[in-house]
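The following block was generated as part of the benchmark described in Methods. Ligand: pyridoxal-5'-phosphate.
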Amino acid sequence: MSRRPFNFSAGPAALPEEVLSQVAGEMLDWQGSGMSVMEMSHRGAEFTSIATAAEADLRELLQVPANFRILFMQGGGLAENAIVPMNISRASKVDVVVSGAWSAKSAEEAQRYADVSVAASGAAAKFTTLPAPATWQLRGDAAYVHICSNETIDGVEYHELPDLMALGSSAPLVIDCSSQQLSRSMDWSRIGLAFGGAQKNIGPAGLTLVFVREDLLGHALRICPSAFDFKVVAEAKSMYNTPPTFSIYVAGLVFKWLKAFSYAGKTGVAAIEQRNIDKAQLFYAALDGSNLFENRVAADCRSRMNIPFYLRGKFNTETLTQAFLTGAKERHLLQLKGHKSVGGMRASIYNAMPLEGVQALVAYLKDFEAQYG
Ligand SMILES: *Cc1c(COP(=O)(O)O)cnc(C)c1O
């Protein structure tokens, strides 16, 4: 079979080809059970073994401490914007750092449940830089502080999580890591709760991961649906209601793929993080060295996962942008269109994107520039 196209989708996004092949092979009969994973009881021995292994592998990959629970939920990142305040705001104060489109949405949704204050905003800089933590206006009695650790649309990423203690706050840090999770190691000492939809970097849509410190369980508001009460879900080991079984199965295969992944003398998350660094450097260097293309984000907070880019100055027209996208598709470089709210182009280069995919994109940028620049 000839090589599959390189897929730069922001989400749902590319999955490792080995995983897709294994899923195809097991579609009609999972390991001699006579059933597809889609057809199994979520409480049966077969699926229980799948879910248990998935959680254990994820815990090992990210070195999740014992006092954190991992929940397999549904609803995606946007539902968590409501579920999190329903669970841990105690209808009190929530501070949000607005660093782009996704954290702006989180701030807006949380207002239905809590007294929300924007502690800092990158809006004036058009979200090309992260507000420095030292400038954040944190309220001492906030129930939690929310950030988006990687802004999928704006392409800004925290390369170090803020140390709230050092900023004089004892509030737990909540991170929306939908488009960052599993791309790098996580500093759990600075995190109270992390959530993200699987479809960016882990598996099929329909699965949402929540990592929650145990002391934050048990404070849900009365209006919180039982199926979204973290304590209820944790006590039922994510089986209070039927979980997204097929998505959990595929995510579990991705975790196994990642455990076996090696690169630059490293394995697992350390290896994928190094490859992600190398891919991002290669692409940003190509943009910075180009007279035709540009990325507008400050160097210290450029995302490794989602790289929005534009044609420069007078070249930045709808026609030339469209010509770029059409030519990309002809070269089997798919889904490079920028988010509709910001336009331009965007390359999402999650874990499943090999280095060769970025090299092919860089080669295309050069050819396009030679033709139109
Ligand atoms: C995609 C995304 C969301 C929304 O996720 P859904 O699963 O569509 O609800 C939220 N936050 C971030 C950072 C995202 O990238």
